[in-house]
Amino acid sequence: MTAWLLVVGLIDADAAKLSFEIEDEEGRLLPCRIHLFDQDEKPQRAAGLPFWRDHFVCPGAAGLELLTGRYRYEIERGPEHERLTGEVAISDQSPKLVRLSLKRIANLRGEGWYSADLHIHRPLSQVDLLMQAEDLDFAPVITWWNRRDHWEPHKHPQAGEDEREGGALLFHRMSRPIDITKSTREVPSPMVYVEQALRQNPGVWIDIEKPFWWDVPVWLASGKMQSIGVANNHMWRSRMLPSEAWGRARDTQRLPPPLGNGYWTQEIYHHILNAGIRIPPSAGSASGVLGNPLGYNRVYVHLDGAFSEPAWWDGLAKGNCFVTNGPLLRVRANGRLPGAVFAAEAGKPLGMKLDVQLTTLDHLTQLEVIQNGRVIQVITCTTDRDQSHAIDLKINRSGWLMVRGIAENPKTFRFASTAPFYVELGQEKRRISKASSRFFLDWVNERIERVKANITDKSQQAEVLRSHESARKFWQKRVREANAD
């Protein structure tokens, strides 16, 4: 074992060395993530290797100096590999070696799927190893965020985040940052920075970091957002954040913790689609700020050819994707990927065959086919890790549908969901729900009152309210133009 693998902990007469060697199926060292806990559930660090909260990553081998006692470990490498767990006892000064093989359970690259985490706060110097350890294809790093600007010339993709009273927007595909360091809680409006980013970088990709942020109705009304974080950083590997932080709170009686926040995220996204806004789902973990490993929440995008960043963003723009923090859910409808638009004559039902491929280490009792926000069919899952299902549907209404699976996990909202498929029957090119449009109009009205309470300077208040008033007109018009419920 080379010297750089050694971790110096507390030097004690009772200390001994514990080494890990994790191999792939051909016996080669395999980068991975290791959670190692002592008898008091205290996570153990490996000096010289990236550590965050409760885990470290390694290039396949690591060594630690530990006190005598029992330790338990969990070893993972993203959702396409099995999970290994076990215990090791250190009873004397004899060195211990844990040598294990970590097997791949799926190869989504071989199927044309490439994964990314769009919300990362880890050091740029660590990202290459982190990506290898998580089997992740794309990992843009946030280097400028509110009053911090650590942008640097670097080969690795960088991003920015404007996170204030109205919520958080993520800015990707920018050649240099915009200056948001002088912003305050409400001033200026986030839309000022959106416009600045678009002028400076016409190809910028702006992601709504979570659906329940207060300014989501404004951002949607602007028509300048490209994706929205349906698998987001309130969903942790080990637990859920129970509240909406400073976002629009859910009814906790109807959607109780710990999983209620996850269902609230789903409901809001369904309202967005029902209001006739077609925006693909995205995913982010906020590793480096919140308690997730990098890549825990990820979005897979399907490409016809080799991976490249432009091709990946183009695939996400088309909605050729699914989001997950565990199950791997690949679905085609009549042979086409999520994001496809199906058109048919009015009065004739659209026949649709769903081909579903599921690979999961988490127990799912069922998959749900959701149309326009309602479950229209349930697919009973087997106990097999790899499953295939074929579902025949008759679609009689315009709108959208997707397939979703939620794992039986009492601590966190572990799920996978496809992006929507869209349906246009007859002349009704886009279904617009009055109830969902009203949902966002009420939201805007509530937010306007909050802005008035938060900003006492009348000129600043008027400036910030301009985008909210514009959004109110948008949602009022959407209510008037609604052609469903």
Structure keywords:
485 residues; alpha+beta; TIM Barrel; Immunoglobulin-like; 4 domains; nine-stranded mixed sheet; 27 strands; disordered N terminus
Describe this structure in words.
The chain is of the alpha+beta class. It has helices spanning 127-134, 190-200, 216-222, 260-274, 309-317, 434-454, 458-481; strands at residues 16-23, 32-37, 51-52, 55-58, 61-66, 69-76, 84-90, 96-101, 113-116, 141-145, 148-149, 158-164, 167-172, 205-208, 227-231, 281-283, 298-302, 321-324, 328-333, 341-344, 350-359, 366-371, 374-380, 386-395, 399-406, 415-418, 421-425. The protein has four domains: 3-101, Sandwich (Immunoglobulin-like); 106-325, TIM Barrel; 326-431, Immunoglobulin-like (Sandwich); 434-481. The strands form five sheets. Strands 9, 17, 18, 20, 22, 23, 25, 26 and 27 form a nine-stranded mixed sheet that branches.
The coarse overall form would be globular
Distance between the termini: 67 Å
Multimerization status: single chain
Percent of residues in β-strands = 25-35%
> Under the CATH scheme, which architecture of the largest domain would be assigned?
Alpha-Beta Barrel
Rg over CA atoms, rounded to whole Å, is 24 Å
**What name is given to the CATH topology of the largest domain?**
TIM Barrel
Integer tally of domains: 4
CATH class (first level) name of the largest domain:
Alpha Beta
Q: How many extended strands?
A: 27
